[in-house]
Amino acid sequence: MNLRFLPITLAISAAFAGSAQAQNLMSLFETARGFDATYKAAQYQYTANLSKGEQAKAVLLPTVGLSANVNRTEVDLVAASQTVKSQSMAATINASHPLYRPANAATYEQGMRQLALASIQLKAAEQDLMVRLSQAYFDVLISRESLDFVKAQKLAVAEQLAAAKRNFEVGTSTITDSREAQARYDLVLAQEIAADNDLRIKRLALNQLVGLNNIEPKSLSRMAKLSAPESSSIDQWVKQSSEFNPAVLQGRASLDIAKLETMKAEAGNKPTLDLVAGYTPTRYKNGKGINSSQVDTNSNSISLAFNMPLFSGYATQNRIKETVALEDKARSDLDAAERNVAQATRTAFFGLQSGIGQVNALQAAEASSQSALDANKLGYQVGVRINIDVLNSQSQLFQTKRDLAKARYDVLLGQLKLRQAAGTLTETDLASINALLNP
């Protein structure tokens, strides 16, 4: 490589490394799934729960064990003044298969519930990631547009300040106009500093969530149409939440597991029956032992092992009381989850409806504020309005613009939160919002 071009190459590389990365919502979601620690922890927990569920199948399957031993025996025959030595080796294979064990059946059913619970928990973590990412994404956009509006307002106030100074110099206005414009300009400068700092903080939060730097989110298209919920019936949304919300599904799975735990405890009073088989080959050195009865043998056995518990020091009875109480607790937890989810769904539904209403109202207010500003500017030029009237109209217009921008993003986030509360939030919903962003 020619060293003369090295500084240019390094400069270009540095420029690209430090430039903002324009990212849409879907691409950042894919990145966040591979980086966000909370979601990755949920994935590892899901894998662990799958293995734990598979362990439950083992209680229904046979168990096989192998044991071996080597014995060396020396016998002193005092009368014959002789020492007789013998060495034997034996190996035993034991197999046991449960025929009737009620506790094992309950353990297996618990394992199957654990598998379902693992899937529910992972789904909940994915939905939570969608909402957290969208919140961070829209926070950056809201802060960025707020800063843009403050800068535009600063420019407008600066123009008004310059006009007030010119009018004062020619004697067509008082010093009050200049001082009012200067005070408003100083206030906008302070607002610009605060807005710039807020944008920095929001960017850091988004960068930390996805593990990238200098992200530049794509803003919402001005032509985007914000839609109301598909179903206008709040009862329909509450019904969906009771059927699909992960918190409710987790509560039901936990209740089922608690009921099975009670069945396991009650099985402590029931008998068990196992099929047991064994095979033991025994071999002696030189084919015989110390006496004639010790010869090479192959031993086979098949038996039924029956066990009937009679008394366990009241441990079983108290264990049953414990599990029944825990079952009642799980039932109460489920009731609380259903009520909380229903309330959250209603809150999200009304919040979304209110947000859409605010957007419509603020759009009308924006047009009215613009008309009011134009009228005040014209009145100021002809002398029927004073400078403070124009400044107030400008402030009202830009405040309305900021509120409208925030309300539009709040509606998008509200759509996701409503679906999350109903338990129906998927990547398709995220993609539909992503389609509303500028290409």
Question: In brief, what are we looking at here?
Answer:
The protein has 439 residues and is an alpha+beta fold. It has helices spanning 6-18, 25-33, 37-55, 102-170, 175-210, 234-244, 246-266, 315-382, 387-422, 427-434; strands spanning 21-23, 63-77, 82-100, 215-217, 272-284, 297-307.
Could you name the key traits of this structure?
439 residues; Outer membrane efflux proteins (OEP); 2 domains; four-stranded antiparallel β-sheet; two-stranded parallel sheet; elongated; disordered N terminus
Protein described:
There is one protein chain. The protein is of the alpha+beta class. The chain has two domains: 19-61 and 101-270 and 314-434, Outer membrane efflux proteins (OEP) (Up-down Bundle); 64-99 and 271-308, Single Sheet (Outer membrane efflux proteins (OEP)). It has helices at residues 6-18, 25-33, 37-55, 102-170, 175-210, 234-244, 246-266, 315-382, 387-422, 427-434, and strands at residues 21-23, 63-77, 82-100, 215-217, 272-284, 297-307. The strands form two sheets. The chain has a four-stranded antiparallel β-sheet, with no helix packed on it. A two-stranded parallel ribbon has the order 1-4. A hairpin with a 4-residue loop joins β2 and β3 (82-100). α2 (25-33) packs across α4. The longest helix has 69 residues, at 102-170. The model is unreliable at 1-19 (pLDDT under 50).
Largest sheet: 4 strands, antiparallel
What would CATH call the architecture of the largest domain? Answer: Up-down Bundle
% residues in beta strands: 5-15%
Order of helices and strands: HEHHEEHHEHHEEHHH
Just give the CATH class of the largest domain. Answer: Mainly Alpha
Gyration radius, to the nearest Å?
39 Å
Distance between the termini: 38 Å
CATH names the topology of the largest domain as Outer membrane efflux proteins (OEP)
Total beta strands: 6
